[in-house]
Specification:
about 300 residues, alpha+beta, 11 strands, about 25% strand, homodimer, seven-stranded mixed β-sheet
Amino acid sequence: MGSMKKIIECVPNFSEGRDLDKIEKIVTPFRGREGVKLLDYQRDEDHNRLVVTILGEPEAIREAVVGAVGVAVDVIDMRQHQGQHPRMGAVDVIPFIPVRNVTMEEAVELSKDVAKAVWKTYRFPVFLYEASATDPMRKDLANIRKGQFEGMAEKLKLPEWKPDFGEGQIHPTAGVVAIGARMPLVAFNVNLDTNNLEIANKIAKAVRHISGGLRYCKALAIALKERNIVQVSMNMTDFTKTPLYRVVELIRIEAKHYGVNVVGSEIVGLVPMEALVDAAVYYLGLETFSIEQVLEARIME
Amino acid sequence: MGSMKKIIECVPNFSEGRDLDKIEKIVTPFRGREGVKLLDYQRDEDHNRLVVTILGEPEAIREAVVGAVGVAVDVIDMRQHQGQHPRMGAVDVIPFIPVRNVTMEEAVELSKDVAKAVWKTYRFPVFLYEASATDPMRKDLANIRKGQFEGMAEKLKLPEWKPDFGEGQIHPTAGVVAIGARMPLVAFNVNLDTNNLEIANKIAKAVRHISGGLRYCKALAIALKERNIVQVSMNMTDFTKTPLYRVVELIRIEAKHYGVNVVGSEIVGLVPMEALVDAAVYYLGLETFSIEQVLEARIME
């Protein structure tokens, strides 16, 4: 058996959601490249922003991303940019997400390699964020981005906001970019057989990290008006440590207290295979199971 | 988004388990071929048999399999073959198994294409079996293979045993081969907290098709002596119609009747992603979920 192929996801956000010619140019480095799969790209005119999702081998991803950053620095002038979404750079943020056979440490390394190349090649300064952050202040993107493009020239002069790669000034037209590694997010919602939002609120509080619940769970309550029920809407920020089955079973237990039942759930968007395999292993009671037993996993060796 | 890549599994069985040179020659057509992944090959000296597992795109699989059959017809002389496993040909059986984006009808077509090529190229006669069978008598491999290599010359003279491809005689050294399409098998075992084999027997009878249970479940009871417990050992012959969760929940219910509990389970060998995703969807209560939401599934587009 060969060694397992490493697979990483990357979701770069570009500050161009309107000019289709420019968007095509930015996306070109992700097309037809061995080892890179362009999964999706979505532009938003109001946000004036482009979100690209790619998947592939770390080395190929690195080259493609550095290439696309070069195009974006060329074609986007942040001095002209307007849009509803907060932003600070022509490429605003580049998260790297380990998917298979890649550790978080390797994803952090990759993010730093890209950051270094982006600074050296384009003189585009970089803040490292999330798992790649060099300072707790820089973990949170919102913290870094505060002041947006228009405030960045002044912000970077502050010693505590010297970029991780770069000097005390922005790129004149491209601004500054945040690059880092983070776990995949799973958007997981659980529906309850009541229309009482207060109950959903209490359950959301019970299961989410911030108010005493599970470490890697963010949760809030929302009403599904059309169905006349309520939902606990969640972001699972590390399903390898807080698995989906744990949160749904905990919600079931909390709901019982109010005479309420779980009636269904949904996963919004993409989810790593492992998050579902974990649930199957738990509920089927599999004593030993390796993801290598999944036929499709073997194709990716 | 591109169209989804078709993936099929093939598990050809060759009548050579001892001569490593010949085995390497037989396996060569599966190596380094674009679109074909050699997952495994296991030889058994007592059976004097080689079982190869490959995965890939239908067209590439077709070419590789026809190539390997040619090698086997060349290097194996069934007149000299001895082994414990029943067999009738140098290549004994070639099942094609749909894995992703392939219908059973397409797998049947592929099996017939291979059968036709094998007969035309090597004058190696073929019985179509399982889902490819042209007659109910020919669905079951054991039925076709009865008489084994030594009895096949006479058997093929019978009008009802004229091969699907070929005439009323065997290949003088290679015999005859069975080729067909079937669903993936999942070997699924469920452990009980008793050492009473009679209870496992009753539960096996309750859940298996033949004695009144689930349509695509074969089951028998075995003792796990070292652990001092018993097991219901199963072959799930179509997990898309009889899913794993249904059989484990049914076993739980049957076991209750004897005051016995399910304490664990195992999947032996490979399993398609879909079988596990089905379990996750059921137990997490996912209201809508598409396998396209699985990140890794997108790589295979």
